[in-house]
Amino acid sequence: MSNITRRSFLQKGTAAAAALTIVPNTVLGKSHGHTAPTDKLNIAGIGIGGMGAANLRNMETENIVALCDVDWKYAKGTFDKYPQAKKYWDYRKMYDEMGKSIDGVMVATADHTHAIISADAISMGKHVYCQKPLTHSVYESRLLTKLADKYQVATQMGNQGSSGEGVNLTCEWIWNGEIGEITKVEAFTDRPIWPQGLMTPEKADKIPSTLNWDLFSGPAEVRPFNNIYHPWNWRGWWAYGTGALGDMACHILHPVFKSLKLGYPTKVQGSSTLLLRDCAPQAQHVKLTFPARDNMPKVAMPEVEVHWYDGGLKPDLPAGYPAGREMNDQGGAVIFHGTKDTLICGCYGVNPWLLSGRKPDAPKVCRRVPKNAHEQDWIRAAKESAANRVPTASNFAEAGPFNEMVVMGVLAVRLQALNKELLWDGPNMRFTNIGDDETLKIVIRDGFKIHDGHPTFNKTMTDPINAKKFAEELIKHNYRDGWKLVDMPR
Questions:
Q1: What are the DSSP calls for 285-346, one per residue?
Q2: CATH class of 164-198+224-354
Q3: Rounded CA gap, 204 and 438, in Å?
Q4: Which H or E element spans position 127?
Q5: What is the pLDDT of residues 331-353, one digit of tens each?
Q6: What is the model's pTM?
Q7: Is 73 left (phi over 0), alpha (psi -120 to 50) or beta?
Q8: How far apart are CA 334 and CA 249, in angstroms?
Q9: Does the keyword Oxidoreductase apply (predicted)?
Q10: Contact 173/360 with Cβ under 8 angstroms?
C-alpha cells in the first residue's frame, strides 16, 4: 500500500506536466507539444474488472503500461491479458511512480471515485477517458469541466452513444426545424437491473483477501463491508453510485442535452418509491425545467421540461403511437414532443424516427465518428496539439455540464421530502428556496411486518436533518480525511 501524501504526488505530477505534453521529447523525439498519429500513447487503466476491461480492449492500438484495481480477483482477467503492464492497488502510488511515463488514463471505477482520480490525472497534464456518470456530484462535474479547460488535455466521457449516428441525426433533425419547437421531453430506462430499494445490511461480511475495502471506499465513509455492495451492485447505493438515473441517463439524455443546447436547469422536482437513506429507490420520476435558450436559425429554443422515469415507470404513449410497437430500444427511449411532429429515439440515441412517418433529409452538420470508435476518438484527440485539437464527442466541456444535469436529478430525488419544486442557481451551485431552518427526515429501515394477519407499519427514520446543510453536502461532498480534491480553478 502507498503511504505517499497527496501533496507529494501532486507536486511530482505538476513537475511532470510542466516538463512534457505527452511523453518526454528526449525519449521519443517528439516536438510541437503533440504526438504523431503513428506514435503510441502510454495508457494506464484504473478500475479494470468491468467496463474498464472493455474500454482497454478498444485502446489496444496503444501501450497499456499500468493497471490499477482495488479488487485483484475481479481484475485478474485484465491483469493476465496485459502482463507487461505494472500492477497497482492504489492509483495514487501508480501516479507517483509512473507519472512521467503515462500519457493518458482510463477511469472506470465506482462513481464516487471518478472525480478525484480524474482530477488528479488532469492536474498532472494527463489525458482522461472517464466512464459515465462523469462524477458523483454537481461540484465534481464543474471541477472536471474547469480543470480540462485549464490544462487543455483531451477528455472523453464513456457514454459511447455520443459518437453514434443516432445522436447526430436527432440533433440535425431538431436543428433543421423538422419537429418544430420543443417544450416537453420524456425519457425512460428499463433499469435498474441490479438490486435497489434495499435495507442497509445489519451485519458485516468478511472482506475478501483480494479486495482492499479501504481503497474501494476512497473519499467516502468506510462502512462495514458486505457482499451486497461489491462487485457491481454498488451502483444502487448512494455512497458509491447514483442509481438507475446516474447510470443510464448519461446514455439516454445526451441527445436531449445536445440537441436542445441545454445548460443549467432552473427548477427540479423528484419523486420515487420508498426513499431510503442509503439505497436508491426502486423507481423514480424527475422533472427538470430549463429556461429558454438562444434561438437557432431554423427553430426556437423555448423553456422546456425534461421528464425522467425508471424502475418500470414510463411516460404515456403519445397520440397516434403505432399499436404494438415496443418503445424500449436497447434499454430505454426518449420522446421529443414538437409543435410539428414527435421524434422518438432509443437508448444511446439509436434509431431515431418521427411519429408522422416522414424521413427527414436534414443537412449533416455534426462531425461523424467511425462506428464503434468512441475510445479511439479520444486517442486521436490526445495525439493532436491542444491548439489544433478537434474535440471528442463527449469531451468534458460538454460532458461536465451534461453530467450536472444528470446528478441534479439525483438531488431532486434525495430532497423530495421537502415537498416542493426546488429552485436552482446554476452558476453558484445552490438552491435558492431552501430555508436555513428547514429540516427533513429520511427512512433508515422499513419495519413493515404481518403479525397475526394484521399489517404493522414501523419505519425507522433519521432525526430531523438540516435540509440546507444536507443539500450542500450532496452538491459538494465532504471527503473523509486523507482524500482531497484539487482546488477549483478560478
A1: EEEEEE---PPBTTB----EEEEEEETT--PPPPTTPPTT-----SSEEEEEEESS-EEEEE
A2: alpha beta
A3: 34
A4: strand 127-130
A5: 999 999 999 999 999 999 999 99
A6: 0.92
A7: alpha
A8: 10
A9: yes
A10: yes
pLDDT at 30 over 90: no
Distance from C-alpha of 236 to C-alpha of 252, rounded to nearest angstrom: 18
pLDDT tens, residue by residue, 66-109? 999 999 999 999 999 999 999 999 999 999 999 999 999 999 99
Residue linked to cell 427514520:
461
- Please report how the helices 91-98 and 114-123 are oriented relative to each other, as an axis angle in degrees rounded to 10: 10
The alpha carbon torsion through 115, 117, 119, 122 (nearest 10 deg) reads -140
Cell numbers describing residue 125: 497534464
The answer to whether the CB of 63 falls within 8 A of the CB of 44 is no
Q: Which residues are CB-neighbours of 464 under 8 A, at least 6 positions away?
A: 439, 440, 441
Of 361, 388, 329, 387, residue with least CA distance to 161: 329
Per-position DSSP letters for 386-405, written without gaps between them = GGGPPPPTT-HHHHHHHHHH
Cα–Cα distance, 276 to 274 (Å, whole number): 6
Q: Which of 52, 110, 112 is nearest to 79 (CA)?
A: 52
Other CB atoms closer than 10 Å to residue 70's CB: what's the count?
Answer: 26
Q: What is the pLDDT of residue 454?
A: 86
CATH architecture observed for domain 6-162+372-395 = 3-Layer(aba) Sandwich (3.40)
The single-letter code of the amino acid at 97 is E
Contacts of 182 (CB under 8 A, 6+ apart): 174, 260, 302, 304, 336, 337, 338, 339
Distance CA 172, CA 376 (A): 24
The model's pLDDT over 132-149, given as tens digits with 9 standing for 90+, comes to 999 999 999 999 999 999
- Cell, residue 410: 439525483
How high is the pLDDT of residue 217? Answer: 98
Q: Write down the domain spans for the chain.
A: 6-162+372-395, 164-198+224-354
pLDDT (tens digit per residue) in 348-385? 999 999 999 999 999 999 999 999 999 999 999 999 99
Cβ–Cβ under 8 Å, residues 421 and 271: no
